[in-house]
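Minutes, project huddle
Topic: does the predicted pose make sense with nicotinamide-adenine-dinucleotide bound?
PN asked that the exact inputs be recorded in the minutes so nobody has to dig through chat later. Recorded below.
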Amino acid sequence: SSAATPIRATLFPGDGIGPEIAESVKQVFRTADVPIEWEEHYVGDQIDPRTQSFLTWESLESVRRNGVGLKGPMATPIGKGHRSLNLTLRKELNLYANVRPCYSLPGYKTRYDNVNLITIRENTEGEYSGLEHQVVRGVVESLKIITRQASLRVAEYAFHYAKTHGRERVSAIHKANIMQKTDGLFLKCCREVAEKYPEIKYEEVVIDNCCMMLVKNPALFDVLVMPNLYGDIISDLCAGLIGGLGLTPSCNIGEGGIALAEAVHGSAPDIAGKNLANPTALLLSAVTMLRHLKLHDKADRIQDAVLNTISEGKYRTADLGGSSSTTEFTNAICDHI
Ligand code: NAD
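Predicted holo structure (tokens), as shared on screen:
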């Protein structure tokens, strides 16, 4: 095992298939000798009054203390009087950017084989500020909030990401021709940050045109940064380009450099406990966590092993048209490592 002092990271195995795919990640990390020590936290079945949610204060403190974490899918508990788990995490940890690397998996055929882009979504405001009301009967109003502070923060993250990950270009996605004030401010902030990064090309693309370009030729894009609603839609569109949500990793960036990586898919109750789940999305999310920690050699080894296993085609889970169990697929990845 590794001689270096281990880095502590919070692990939320989550619900449904969560514990099965989290087990996969733990096994792969052990095999690759990753110097991470997991602090496991489960979602409770009672509301913690300090968080008004099923997530305990101790769980949130664990992420704050460690600064890094990995989150499995969490089923939305039914009933009133509590906050949604994802909302609690986003608000309490101030997770302001959602980052999704999106690249074609070699050997897994989709319509495109040359996708290699990153979507960076502002995650705290825009149309998702939750400010809606009825003006009079038959007329409702929703407020889209764009602030200089949140726009600069996400733009800064996007350019910093581009610079530190060998990317060449940042595209700001907008509709400032119609949303002149809000998207206009977002673009103004992106331009200000762009000036500090002369080595990174900067462009602005109107969202409708962006959609057309993405489905015609996704290779046209490198790093995309955008307000909340556009990011929600475009990031799922991009996941579709490479084979769906089951394969797509993501990472949430919070105040003070917190990184909470998570698979994009849900808890898959239909296949939970059956050893059928595909751990790829959670594994690749764990890889984004390693990259955040600058453990690039470990990240490369694990990413290559996952991609090679899928590309070989001998061991694949059912969602990718194979017949392997979660355990068989995981063992094959470990053999590649
Ligand atoms: P889901 O993603 O759980 O499942 C949709 C379909 O995809 C199912 O057929 C499922 O079997 C399949 N699938 C998903 N992940 C898979 C994997 N890794 N391997 C193989 N197949 C996989 O979506 P849903 O059914 O709409 O939601 C179920 C629960 O998950 C709900 O409680 C929902 O609130 C929750 N959810 C949580 C998150 C999150 O924590 N970020 C995200 C989405 C949904």
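Observations noted during the meeting:
- The chain is about 40% helix and 20% strand.
- Residues 17, 73-76, 86, 246, 262, 265-271, 277-278, 281, 319 surround nicotinamide-adenine-dinucleotide (CB under 6 Å).
No decisions taken; revisit at the next huddle.
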